[in-house]
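step: validate -> pass
step: tokenize input -> pass
step: predict -> running
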Amino acid sequence: MKKRYIVYGLLIVLLLLSIIPSLTPVLPVIQLPGEVLWAWPGGKSFLGGLFGAGFTNTFLATLVTFVIVLIMAFRLRAKSRTANDVPSGFYNFFEMLVEMLYGYVENAAGKWAKNFFPFFMTFILWIVVSNWMELVPGVDSIGKWENLPHFEAEKAVQLAEAEAEAAGVHLSEEEILEIEETVHHEVDEANVGNVQNGIILTKASEPKPDDADWTIVPYLRAAATDLNFTLAIAIISVIMTQYYGMKAQGMKYWSKFFTWNGDKIKENPLAIMDTGVGILEFVSEVFKIVSFAFRLLGNIFAGQVLLFVIGSLVPVANLLFWFLEFGVGALQGVVFALLTLTFMSGATESHGHDH
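step: predict -> pass
step: emit ->
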């Protein structure tokens, strides 16, 4: 009873705070790539740009997610060895979940269940935990201050250096400084009035958060809102699908993609369409990477933006969307794992025409 009143009280406080103009949340700066927390030494890209311009908040969130999953695994494994204790609490729920999911994988994959289940369960845990991270208070809201004009100047310099390098020209320090000063001047011209607490005030003294000179770069941002994360697990999924296809069928596996039967084509020229269909199927197999990556990225990034927008308009209503994103985060992890299981199971089945 007391806990219920505490929740009601907090909701009333949140409602009161949301109608006070000075405390109303503002819409943060939204961008698709992960923000750089720490640049590599010298401000240059690492290994020819392989690791981007620096250490990003989405990569840090990926590492945190990985650590959380490992802690869960080791703690649950330790509890599984205490056979004298009666399972209870979270361990009991997790054991029931694993048994249910393994039974599903066994029905779908048969003898390959032991091979597929580690990927199936890892994808669910990793993706769901990373998706739910955006719902934790402090994620996407606690970070470091960043000067936006300076950030824009850095991007302009990087673009100019890339163009100069492509043309075989090296920019001098004076040219770089000139580019930075030009960007700062353009930003100053666009903003009218004085800056107070990071907010531009117009001549009418109206706050314009969109024109702020400063923003917060969060230390943690949900990993699946970065294409690098979703693309990486999509590549793992598709490559392992081909691996198990070859393991089950040998080199015969590739015959469904690349076929050529000269004798059959001589008898019926339309049989050449089998070759074209095989090539299209191979292209569709490769494009599963794109499908996997952008489906997960689009759903989670859209959910993040939705929470930002609703939070800046009607903070109390964000509680409803919090539960919505909780369900979406779990659903996306399960969908990714189920599709991977389906493709792996299909790859191990023979597509030959033997009787």
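step: describe -> The chain has two domains: 1-44+53-137+219-355, 146-215.
step: cleanup -> pass
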